[in-house]
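Re-run with default settings, no changes from the original entry. Doing this only to confirm the output is reproducible before filing.
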Amino acid sequence: MRHAGMMVFVLLVLMVANCGTGGERPMAFMTVKKGTFEIVIPAFGELQAVTSTPLRVPVQLRWSQTLAWIAPENTHVKKGETVIRLDATWYNQQIQQEKFNIAKLDLDIQKKEKELEKEKNDLRGQLNITTIEKEVAELYRAKDETIYSRNKIIEDAVDLDYLKFKTRHFERKKIKLQEKARAELQLLQLKKRTHQVKSDQYKSALNSLEIKAPHDGLFVYQRNWRGEEPRPGKAAYRGEKLAELPDLNVMEAKIYVLESEAGGLKENLPVSVIPDAAPTVVYPGKVTTTDKIAKPLERESPLKYFEVKVSLDRTDPAVMKPGNQVRAIIFVRKQEDVLAVPNQALFFDDGTAYIHVKNSSAIEKRQVEIGARSLTRTVITRGLQAGEVVLLGTPAAEEGG
């Protein structure tokens, strides 16, 4: 079977069972031929659009929202069509409460206006009486000392001064009452405006609870880091991305590479992407970005992965949809016309590499020089010729001591 992550060799594996005494372990050999050696990294992931329009919870909604309804995923929507609806219960309750507060303040304002008008009328009456009394006192007060006694003249003068003072007092009181009336009514009006502003804010937020498609497109859910999709009853927060309308004409792959298999991973490496929806089709691409730090895909998992973005040489909208699962092969290194053996054919002694070569009479332990290595194979640069037969493992005599 040809492994997409390894080099392509033409290898002939011979199973040789030693004849004679029974119970001896059979040994596996292979004839080595030149071929292609590849170091590859397997990966998995999903397709996504390079560009898309995000659909988020409006930022003017200050508190946590509850998702009431969301359109089915992968449906084609039209511009202006409602695709997400947030629960409006709380906002309707607040609007009704503000209506009640405003109506109550309207009654308070009417009551205060009547009270102030009554105080004004009472004060106006007192001022009118005092003014008349002052005018009468001025008209009939005793002045002529030849007619009235000095005490009478003094008493009338004192009474007139008192009435003048009383008149000024009521006039000042009238001014203060007007200022008081204006201040109290302004305070009530300010409270009313405050509740009106709140009501308008709630109404504006109510209009924002329906999220509409800004343009035609395919409606795709945004899943969280646990892979959970948005659903009715789920909490949603201001600015949170719930879905998107992707541009299906240009797609890319978001894939994950196991940390232990990421040796040699870097940008611009060639990649083959195979969608699960079309397993016989290979889409070429290259690595554009890689994470600097590996992270687990699940919170409790000990396995860590590097997230890698792959640009594709072409996009097939008929096959490629956002969220479709893919397999990928990242090509780290490729050498043509080289000799390579499985790693189990090599062994090391004090840092020197050896291999067992089968000739016509015996199995020879031979020192070799090695080149590039993958997880399963190693390139032999010196000490081995094409057509020679090597042992996959260790001779039984050496194992027995």
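Residues 89-208 form one domain. The two ends are 35 Å apart (CA to CA).
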